[in-house]
Structure formats: C-alpha cells, structure tokens
Structure prediction request, 725 residues.
Amino acid sequence: MTRTPLTVAELDELVAELQKLSRNLWWCWDQQAQDLFQELSPRAWQNLYHNPVAVLHEVSNYELRVHLQDADFERHVRAVLRDFRTYLNEKNTWGRQHAPQLLEHPVAYFSAEFGFHESLPISAGGLGILAGDHAKSASDLGLGFVGVSLFYHEGYFQQAIDANNWQTEYYSFIDPQTVPLEPVLNTNGQPLIGEVDIGMDRVRFRAWRINVGRVAVYLLDANLPENPQHARELTSRVYAGDGTTRIMQEILLGIGGVRLLRQLGIQPSVFHMNEGHAAFLTLELIREKMAAGKTFPEASTQTKDECIFTTHTPVEAGHDRFSPELMDYAFQRYRAQWSVPLPDILALGRVEPKNAQELFCMTVLALKVSRAANAVSELHGQTSRQMWQSLYPDTPVEKVPIGHITNGIHLLGWMKGPVRHFWREKLTDGHNGQTAVFREQFGEYWTAAVHSHEFWKRMANPEFVSDEELWALRYHLRREMIEFVRRRLLIQSQRAAQSDYIHFDHLLNPDALTIGFARRFATYKRASLIFQQFYNIVNLAHDPQRPVQFIFAGKAHPRDDEGKRLIQQIIHLSKYSELAGRLVFIENYDVHVARQMVSGCDVWLNNPRRPLEASGTSGMKASCHGCLNLSILDGWWREGYDGTNGFAIGGDSQPDNIEEQDRVDSANLYKVLTEQVVPMFFDRCEKGIPRKWIQSIRRAMVTLVPQFTTDRTVREYTEKYYLAK
Prediction:
C-alpha cells in the first residue's frame, strides 16, 4: 500500500518538536533519541560532540523534511517524540507522591559547575558531574527542583600534549546557539537582565536555561557589552584567574543567582549549596530579610532554616578562603545595602569570629548558615567532623553536625549505547520468561525496571543472562574502546607531528586484561602509584599467556605543575619504556572519553591517598558495564566493597606517614593485582570463559549498580534534608 505523504502542517509540527527535543537533555539518556540524531548525519554526530542542536544546524531544514518523508525514519521520530512527551507529562512520579510541596516551592540547587554531556563542556570535573547527575535524577523522580550556575563561554580548558609530553591548555568559545541552551526572556521577548554589585561595579547579567528533562538549570552570564571588560570575563572560564576573580564569580553565582530566581517568580523552599562556592547566597537571603525589617540575628536564623550544605572535599585547598582586604574590596558597594558593619559579616566566615586576621572561609559561612550539612560518603563524614570540629568546640567529634549521603551516578546517563540496548532487550524481549513479571511491576517503562534492585538481583541467575552472553558483551565493549583509543591516539600523533609512536592498528591487545585510570590528576590521587613497581609491572605486561595493559586519561589543573609532571611521566613511559604499546595516555579527558573507558576496561583502578577521596563516582559508572573496581578503601568503595564484588587495595586504615602510606599501598596494589586480579581473569573453563571473574561481575551488578545511583541519592536528600525542618 502506498504511504500517504506528510502534509506541510505535519512536517512543520515534526520539525518543531525535533527542535524542542534537541534542546532538552533528556536525549542524552535516551538511546533511541540519540540514534535518531545520529541517523541524520553520522559524521556530524561524531565530530560535533554528539550534539543534536549542532546536527540540526548541519542538516538543512529542507533535508530534514525530506528525511521525514521516509516511512521508517518518520516512525522512529514519532516513537521518540511520543516517549519524550510521555516523560514530560508523567503525573505519577515519585516526587509528586512523596514531596508534592516541592512542586510549588522547589529545591534551589546552587553549584559552580554542572556537568551534563560532552556537548556542553562547562564543568571541570567530579563536582560538576555529580551536580549534573543530581539534576537528571531530580527530573526522573519528578522532584520540584531548579539549578543555578554560571555560563562559562569558554568552558573548561581543552588539553593538548606538546612535543615534551607536557600538558598545554587552550580554550574554545561555546556558541549558545549551537548547544542545548535557551535564552531566558522577559515578557517583551527580550533577554531578562539582572544586576549585582561586585567591587565598585554594578554588574549586569542575563541567563540561559538548560532543560534537563522535567527540570531547569539556569546559567548566569555577565558577558554583556554594557559591563566593563573585567566583569564580562567573570563568566569566561571555569575556575580561572586569581582569588579576586574567584570571589567575584562566587558573588555573581550566590547573590546574582538568588536575584534571578526572584525575577523568575521562583520561591524555593530550600537552598542547597553544592560546595562552598555558592555560600554568598546566604548573605543575599539575610539582606532580603533585613530589608523587610528583621534584625541581623533574626534574619540569620531564618536564613539558616532555609539552607542546607554539601561539602565535597577533605583537601584544605578545596575550601575557598579570602583575605579581609579582598572581602572589603569585593563587597564595597553591596555592603552599603546592609545596616551591619563589615566585621559582623566577616565573622560569619571565621572559625574565631573576633580574630581579625583569620581568612574568610566559604565553607565556614555555609556551615554556620545552614540547618543541615553533609559529606558525600560515610568515611568522608568522619573526616569532615574531625576537620571542622573547631567550629563546635564544646561538641564531641562524633556529634559534630555533619552527616553524610553517599554520592551516586545517573545510571542511564552513563550507560554506553550497546549496554542500554543489551539491558532493554533483556527487559522487553517477548521470549524472555521474566518479561511479564517486570511489565506487571513496572509497566512498559524499562527505565524504571533498570533502576530497581529487583532487576539487578536477576544478574545472579545465569538463566536470565548467561556467562557466555556477559563475556560476549565484555569483548564487544573492550573492542569498541580499543578502536576508539587507536583513533584518538592517531589523531593526537598527527596533530603533534610525532613519528615516534607504534603502528596504531596494532596498538593494545583485545585479549589482554585492560586496566583503566582516568580522573583529575591531583597529586593525592597518585596516578603513577602502580609504576613504583615498574619492572614487576613490565613483566606482567609482557606475559604472553596472561598479558596486562593500561589506559590512562585525565587533566591537571592549569596551575598544578606537579600534576602535569605525573602526566608527563606516564606519557614518557608509554612511548619510550618497555611498556610502549601496552600503556597509553588519551588526551583531553571528557565525558565521552570517560564513558568509553568505564565501559571498555576490565578493571577500574583508583588509588587515592586515603582519606582524601571524599567519595568518587567514576568507579560507580563501571559496574553496569561489567568492569570491576580495584580501589583503596576510601570514599564510596569502602561502603560498596563486600569481598566478592571487586578488589580492595589494603585494609580499612592507613599509616599516618605519607611516605609509608605510599610504600604500603604500592606493595598492596601489586600484591592484589598478581594474587587475585590477574589469576582470576585468566582462569578459563574449557570453553574459554572466566567463570569466577564473571561471578564477580554478577556480584558487582547485584550489590553496586542499583545502590550507587543519584536516584537513591536524591531520594535521601529529599527525605533527610529537603523536607525536614
């Protein structure tokens, strides 16, 4: 039967809906939506950072309309748009059932960075990735939620490695028209403009909206022609510049963010500060109340009732501190709106309020003006209570009011495409005996089932998914990653005009045990720890029967020369040592590289200097792909490890001496690698299947995947903090 062609009106409607879909990040955790945009232009999809907005700029309106006349493509589009509308309009959400009051007065979640996807590179690392995953799960749960951050026009730096194997940085301008953003407009259709006093300037800002499923994240942008140049540059780069730039960015974020919400008519019930960068919002809330007639103590107390605070680091350098002179300068115009002297304001950020020489600490401000505070893992909670006990001198350390909620990840956002397809087939295949059970419990939404403990408990049953299927999936993912690495390294060598590398088509071995390490190259994360046993590692790598190989990636902060030296050392080993061909470093680590690595590696290595890893989330992303963790018992892994679901480096303690800790951890790492990891991986049955290894994969899926998600994290925040008064 001949298909009736689409009318002009039908085409207009489909094109408009696709444009709307492209600017809602829901697509970044829906595989069918991603497949749709990739089908329009596979090359643009690959080269433009998997960005639907950019793809639709690449594909002309005429070409798109021609594509839509294809019956199969039209069906695909309509199916995706139907799922999108269903998601947006769902009424029976967890948030509506358990926190309906937040729908009218939402949680305002302030973070200096949000990391959503490689197409929007405005995040520096783990803090932003956690914030982005938190927002995605708030959307999935149907929670009343709004995010606030800054729009960095040049984002975080792009990393390149020069001829001396030294990290160099460059920045690329982000065009708001070609990324998933929408301008925030006033009733006249013009950009909504706000202002805040910073230093001696009245800085004006506009805002952009990121649609994250059902929720919105607003980004403040000071790059306006009416601002002085130094003010315009406040929203140029993530964590760039000196202390003066930092304090001004944080004034814009905290004070400007509150003012933006007021302009939008949003009246939050709670302000959640994700790390201390946003703590100046408390000053604006106090100022508002004093302007309404409250005294300073009354306004401070009422503001405290509205705020909660999450601390993310036990590393001292991670807590912003500013001199009294810088505070005096930064707040010159703003404090004229207060009826209290500057020393009273400074006292809010000091452990000893009357110590005029003490630096103003953003974490202290946040702790003092919050009704609740939490760390991001159980051990980090203990460390934070010890770290900040001086704020509560008459309180035993175990009673210091800092709790903990362990971080998680947005599961579907981190699943690689083949894995999404794999689990979806397991849940929707009509020949699978479990399908009727799951449909009865979860309806047609496989995404609800894949978040459930009940689904992942099925992983223990070989009848649900066989060892052979899991091992085939692992080989598929490892092969994809290795081919990705080969392409990236070839591009790296061509860009750097290097001719001293090996033949890329034979780089790495798809049959080797592949160990991955990828994260920020802060020195306490000890990227090179495994190479302290260098010649032992060389012998492991060259074992013809049980080969081992290593893939590294990560960025050092532009001012962290020690971190850059670690990168230089590892790249040098990858080129000029006996590990050449068995060790590689991928430059310009981002969300896309991370997804490739956590899915394709067999082992995810994490060896921070305990207890400096507050939580960590990269290892959580590995488990749903069948990658096992090999980690120090720090952060989340201390809670996740049960002796059967991965590997621990050392025990639940650490030496006080740094040098001794590094020596002991290096020895323990090599011991567990040679006595547990390598033997188990290469212990194969007559069919070539590593049964014990796959049993550990099953245990990791059962015990880790459904537990360490931001769905669980956001529910905990809601029940313990957002709704608690």
Summary: The radius of gyration is 26 Å. The first helix runs from residue 8 to 22. The chain has a mean pLDDT of 94.
